Each structure stands twice: as C-alpha cells, then as structure tokens.
Amino acid sequence: MQKSPLQAARQSYQPKMPVALLGEVKLKEGAATQSVADQDEIKKLFPNTYGMPVIDMEPSSEVVRHDEVLNVGVILSGGQAPGGHNVISGLFDALKKMNPKNKLYGFLGGPSGLIEGKYQELTAEIIDEYRNTGGFDIIGSGRTKLEETWQFDNGIEVCKKLGINAIVIIGGDDSNTNACVLAEYYLQKKCGIQVIGCPKTIDGDLKNEMIETSFGFDTACKVYSELIGNIQRDANSAKKYWHFIRLMGRSASHIALECALQSQPNICLISEEVEAKNMTLNDIVEQIVEVIVDRSKAGLNFGTILIPEGLIEFIPAMRVLIQELNDLLSANDEFASLEGDDAKREYVKSMLTPASCDLYRSLPKGIARQLTLERDPHGNVMVSLIETEKLLIEMVSKRLAQLKAEGVYKGKFAALNHFFGYEGRCAIPSNFDADYCYSIGQTAMHLIAAGKSGYMALVRNLTKPAAEWKAGGVPITMMMNMEKRNGKMKPVIQKALVDLNGAPFLYLKNHRAEWADVNTSYIYPGPVQYYGPTEVCDQPTHTLKLERGGK
Predict the structure, then answer these.
(1) Catalytic machinery residues
(2) Is residue 47 helix, strand or coil?
(3) CATH 3.40.50.460 domain position(s) in the chain
C-alpha cells in the first residue's frame, strides 16, 4: 500500500493506554443495573442480559494463563468514524498477547458478512498496514440490521465453521442495540458465542452517564473546525461573503455545538433549542437577519453560520409537514404516475392539511421538490438530502430585500453554502481517538476473556491523561428504552441530544452575542495536530471538558 509521509509516520505511533490495561487485568463487578426507562419491558425482552453489573478493570499481580485458543470475529457497522482501525488493532494485539494461536476474523461489508459468511482472517501483516489510519476499509462496513432469527442462526453456522467464540460489533446506537439482541439470542440458544459492542459515531449522540463520548467525534469535529476556521479567515480577509455551513448530525446537534466552541462563528443554530422554543422557519430567518443587519451597520457584510444537518426536522411545523408527506407519499402510485414537478406540487398541496399546505407553499420550489423526492427504505423523507443551508440563504436573501426596500437594511448580502460531512468521517484519527479506540479494542478483548456477553466496552475519565483513563464494561440493556420505530415499539439505546441545561450549550448561549457582534472573535483552530506539546496534540473536545467541569 502506497503511503503519504504522514501515513508512514503514523503507522509507528504507539497509542497510549490506561495503566489497568498495560499488564494483567482483573475485573471488579459493581451492583446490578436497570435500563434507563421501561424496565419491565426491557427485562422481559432480555432475561439473560438484563440487570448485569457495571464492570471496572484494575491492574492485577496475578499472572493468568490463556491456554484455551479463542477465535474472535469483528464487524464494522454503520457509517465510518475515525479510529475504527485502532479498535481492531487493540483487539488484535490483546488477543494475540493472550495466546499467539488465537485468531481474529473480520466479517466483510458489515453485519451482512456474518450472515453470508464473507470473512477474512486478520493477520499481523494486514493489521500493521492499518494502525492509526482513518476509514473502515480494512474490512468495509454496512448498514444491514441484525433483527431476524434466520440471520442469527446463519451467524451461528458461520461461527461454528470458523470456531469463533465471540463477536465484537463496532457501531452506533442502532448497531449496539442489534449487538444486545444478538447476545441475548445466543445466550438463549446456549451456543457459546459472546457478543461485545463498541461505541462509534461521529454524531456524538451515543453517550450517557457511562459512555462519555463515542469514538470519531473528536477527530471529525477537529477536522470540521479546521475547515470552518479556514473559511472564517477567508471571510475576515475578503469581507464580502456570508458562509452558511451545514454540518453532519441528523438526530442531534453535538457536532455543530462542538465546532462552534472551537471556532466561535457569528451564529450557530442548535436544533434542540429550536424545538424547545417552538420556533418556526421564519423565526430562524429573523434571528439570522438580525445579526446580518447589525453587522452591516458597521460595514461588516460577512460572517459564518453553522447549521445542524437535522435542523429541518426539529422545527415543529416542518416536522408535521414531513410526517404528512411521509404518510401521503409512501407507496403512492397516483403521485408516482404524475409527470412534471408542477403537477406533483399541485397534487401535494391538494392533499395536505391547511397549516402544512401554507408552509409548503412558502418554501422555495427547489426545497419543496426535495421533500417529495427519493424516500428511504421505510418510505420517509431523506432529510440528509435536504439542502437546509440553501433554503436559509434563499429565505434570508428575500427577507433582506424586503428590509432594503423599507430602508432598514443598506448592506450587501452575498452568500456561499457548504456541507461538511464525508470530509471528517475517515480522517486520520487524532491522538485522542487513536488512544481511545486502541483502549476500547483492548477492553473488549478482556471482556471476552472473562466470558462476558451483552456488554459495551467502556473507557472513562477521558479528560485526564490516557494513563489515568478507566476501562471496563457496561451492560447494553442499561442504556435502553422502548421507542416507536416503523409503527412498532422496539428496544433501542436512548439517543443523547444536546442538553440545553448542560455546560457546553450554556457556554455557547453565554457567548453567542459576543461572537455575533462587530468585533472579530473568530478562532482559527488549524489542522488536527499529531506531534508537539500535549496541550496542542492530546486534548479532548471542548464539549467533554465542559461536561467534566473544565474548559
């Protein structure tokens, strides 16, 4: 594999780990746990994995022999996140340290690899090529859900063929929910296959009282913040553009918030705040226009605005409209047979409720069309394809033209739109993510060696130096509740939204007026650093530091 000089240098980087994982490890079990909600329902669905204790790992002076050969399978599930390769590297190194005869198999293309028996043995030669690299290309990923009995049974047959004793699923909340379902089924079947999950998502919404952060969030936010800082430097140099920047994060606004804390833009919209205040699309436009007008009075016709990817769904009236469109257009042959955008637009208007029809009419035609285009497999609007930044530019421009006609606004408005998504998902992991992910992989292997199943690998105390991090495991059932999915109540890991009473959001709230005013407050974070002083290279996110009581 051809490498850039940075890739080659990063290959030799040795991730830092908690002291507890450096030698022999012993497990300390805490009290029994319960789910965050719907305890009776979750307990009934998971009788074998419910109520298990939280596990802490501590250094041990006792030397343990691992004579039994263990074979482990690993799956990358869902979207990419920086550090996935290091989870696999940590898992591999711990597995081989216990017994060189142990084998690690990677299931290719995500969970479907387990179902279809597509795999590759991961050797030292392969692993060494991927240490400290971004991406999931070592075995590929996929979004197949493990929900059906036949899938579980296929997995048993594949594991028997390979002599696999345990499966590690690296994924987000849905993937780890699937891991818990799989663990429960295999315990019921007494087939001897353990299942361990690892917390992955750049969106940052897989966290709770036990999981401090999901891996990949740190790197992705640093990459996006570098790009935002570059744009802000350009804006402050050219002094002629407003940059509307949409960032990944459909279900929560953690990325937008963290990037705002790192770069201090003029405006940062937070979806959860929009919902809590019951704001309309026009309310958001007015909020943006107010800042633009104020800055224009000082001759500053430029600025930056951060927009969460999922904003549109958090606007209450828009959410109602989207739900009506989902119900109306799902498997609608009459709509599908119509030719031309105008005919489809008129059909939709005739079928909506009056309030939703008025909102639909008010939208720019391009955005209205996007709402009726391609659907996901469940027949729902693909919100990630809606170019919210372009919608806001068009509406803000229209409103400023009205104010100019009234003599209220005398500035110039020129806007550029950006969407930062894939730029961050496969970046070379930051030192934090390289260390964190390697530790998660090691932790997962120690849980397997102890015979555990239905756990998520846990590394905490993350604002301290890596040596002081604490490793362990948390029962996946502890993080679950019941939610309606596709019309049915299902057990799922509870998503973490931005806490409007939490320290990270309150910091933004207390500084947003200062960042919006005529004095330049931009921060230019620069590229993710890998070499240099620890205060540059090894720091966690601002979000994590604020949540843990610092800044």
Answers:
(1) 203
(2) coil
(3) 217-425+501-547
Residue 377 has pLDDT above 80, yes or no: no
Q: Which fold has domain 21-60+67-216+429-485?
A: Rossmann fold (3.40.50)
Tell me the pLDDT tens digit for each residue of 170-194: 999 999 999 999 999 999 999 999 9
Q: Which amino acid is at 314?
A: F
- Cα–Cα distance measured from residue 110 to residue 143, given in angstroms and rounded to the nearest whole number: 7
Write out the residue limits of the CATH 3.40.50.450 domain(s) in the chain.
21-60+67-216+429-485
Exposed / middle / buried, residue 349 (Cβ in 10 Å: 0-12, 13-18, 19+): middle
pLDDT in tens, 245-301: 999 998 999 999 999 999 999 999 999 999 999 999 999 999 999 999 999 999 999
Query: Residue 265: how many CB atoms within 10 A of its CB?
Result: 26
From CA 545, how far away is CA 289, in angstroms rounded?
32
What CA–CA distances, in Å, run from 268 to 108, 168, 262, 505?
39, 37, 12, 11
DSSP code, position 200: B
Whole-angstrom Cα distance, residue 154 to residue 142? 17
Amino acid residing at 72: V
Q: Which two three-digit tokens encode residue 299?
A: 């001759």
Quote the tokens at residue 226.
């570098």
Joined together, the tokens standing for residue 462 give: 């993350």
Q: 503-516 and 281-297 are packed helices; what angle lies between their axes, rounded to 10 degrees?
A: 40
Q: pLDDT class for 374, splitting at 50, 70, 90?
A: low
DSSP assignment string, 165-182 = -EEEEEE-HHHHHHHHHH
Homologous superfamily of the 217-425+501-547 domain (CATH)? Phosphofructokinase domain (3.40.50.460)
Q: How far is CA 445 from CA 72, 236, 457, in A?
A: 9, 50, 9
